[in-house]
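In pairs, describe these two lines:
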Amino acid sequence: MKGVYSAPGDYIHFKSQVPLHKIPIVTKQWRYYDFGPKVVPPLICLPGTAGTADVYYKQIMSLSMKVGYRVISVDIPCVWNHQEWIQSFEKFLDAIDVHHIHLYGTSLGGFLAQLFAQHRPRRVKSLILSNTFLETSSFSAAMRWAPIVGWAPSFLLKRYILTGIHDGPQEPFIADSVDFVVSQVETLSRDDLASRLAFTVDNASVGPLLLSDSFITIMDTNDYSSIPQELKDQLGERYPAARRAYLKTGGDFPFLSRPDEVNLHIQLHLRRVGVEAKPDLVRTIPKDGSGGSPGKENDEKKDHDDQPNGNGGNPESTSKESQSPPAPESSEYHGLYDQPLSSAKVISIGREDSTLMKNNTF
């Protein structure tokens, strides 16, 4: 994390190909990248406290530019409580004409993804949760100066965030991921940093979801994480039938340090919940990242989703995409889930791999 940081060449290429969009929502500005065929239901990526929309550039380059999924990566805007986040995120989705979504959230982003799924169940069709948690009480208890986080100076906020990122000897690909995230922290304003930390010290917890566990994948790293192991265990206990996709290594930012494994598990999840890529449409996407014809499909899905379903609003009954059970997997497809990859494996959540308790979340 020390010295002069040089952006990787693939990131420079990404920036030259995918434009950064900005949309004002009331008094908040949403920054996001959106690439892939508009006819494909989008995967929306939510970063942690230290992340920006840029941290998921490897997912966009692989899943959108090569495979044919639509991936939207967003910044967490400067909002100060969870209810304001839910309302602002819903307005953002309306502004970009997206109704049904699949969410991939890491750390704080995974917590916010669950909150949105709880309070807006008709819109969320599946979840991928990585190194995340169900409640914030342990973080608020560990941060003695939590009551004044909104007034803390920028240098103190940055120091608090950066000291929670592992800075010891580590493999080069993990060190590179840390350097990249640290460079993104430097782009955040004082209000951005303060509002994100306010999320983690504002006592809140995720309530029951209407979403079936079969539409949830839990993807964590086994080496270390800023999220205490006991909070990860709570997540697994809440969703006992969720898919487990654990990476042997990757640190706090596996989407950067282990992108191939992460992207594979994302593809398996999207296939399992019925989202089909459109690689044939990628070539037709103009340089501004837009593509396809969203209007008709979104209108049809929105009309279908709003129909009474007689099932208490359960999202599994509100659209063709998510009402049917996961399709039977071929032996090859099933094997990718059950057999170890070069650095990834699927296991049941357990306590045998203990993680050192830390006070920060990213």
Summary: Residues 82-95 form the longest helix (14 residues).
